[in-house]
Amino acid sequence: MTMRRGRGVLSVQLFLGGAAVLLPAVAQGGSIFAGEGFGLDVITHPSGYTGTGGVVNVEVCIDAAAANAASMAIPVQNIVLELNNMTASSPNLFFGLDNNIPAGVVDFESLTLHELGHCTGLAHPNLGFRMGVVEGANTNFTQATDGADNMFAFDAGVDTVIGTSDDLRGDDQNLHWFEKLANNPCIGVANPQSSNYSRDVADLPAGHDFAANASRDVCSALSVADTEAVMQQGQGSDEDQRSLQADDVATYRMVMTGLDEIAGTADDYTINMVYGGIKADTSSCDIVIQSSTSGFGVCFIGGSSISSTDHWRITSATFQYNSTLTWFFNPILNSGCSVGDIDLTFAGVTHNNTQNHQACNSITYGPSYTVGASGVVTATAPSVILGNGTTVIGQFTADSSVP
Ligand SMILES: [Zn+2]
Predict the structure, then answer these.
(1) How many Å lie between the centroid of ligand 1 and the Cα of residue 298?
(2) Which of 270, 305, 328 corresponds to the end of one domain?
(3) For the whole model, what pTM was predicted?
(4) pLDDT value at position 284?
(5) 232 lies in which domain range?
């Protein structure tokens, strides 16, 4: 692969290897395009973000030609909702009788959360299965380059736990963002941004040698049980990991501070995942889900830099899962909210036709919103707000149920 800095375009394959199926893999760190080729500080944004703040819609579609297309609909909708909720859960690993997955079977919904993370720009917090990481346990060292000597340094330090703050990594260059104050990815971080979050080991707390990653072993060592970053590579059978963990949420929030990496400024954005359904023509979709007959799960992505900065965005994303393996497709739709929009606002418009507005949290009308004489508007959301300057001449119905 030719690595070019700047306005380059490339494709990267990311695999989710697991205890059930182990694969050789190519992986990138921190943000998906970060590394020796494009730069350690690269931050990757979802498709649609060009540096202007606001809501970035990311439409996820199931290719009608994919194996088990209909069975994927509920798991994919659950993950769309999970990503839109953007809330950290702990514990977020459930096994045996604590989940609805049959023994020996791999959960498609858990895979989908991980792969859609890649498809929106996130990389593995750990090295994962790749060239130069021969032994299984070494895959859990924190994501880094292999440094000037082209060889990873594997020393788990005094605590002998791989991936913790006392790992000695030689000249490996860290690619995993961490909170400067605590370097503890197993607990939540308020408002991550460049002032309190860093990739540079010079910003680590006193006495720490490397960025810790939120593997289940590291979190256990930090007294946070059954908790692991979703983006950690590795998924076993009978494993339910359908909720984001604190490190996943912090990474997304950091990325959503935009080009200036400062929260609360005009270039901040919110990712709004939209479930596009099962489609024969997926040309309008940002992320397409297909099946394959090899590997495990993978998101093929293309990207380009934004205005020749360290910031990149995804330009194409295809998530393929190996349909020849035995998967569990969760048949239970979560929380009843199946639409992609959390909040909607209608201002400065007049509706003179039939409109059905649906959101998981709230819909706000106004200022300057009018239902014209021929308008029939139905608003379905737990909170429907009629603001200043709202005029109803035709018909308006507010339904406070969850759509
Ligand atoms: Zn992965």
Answers:
(1) 7
(2) 328
(3) 0.79
(4) 94
(5) 10-328
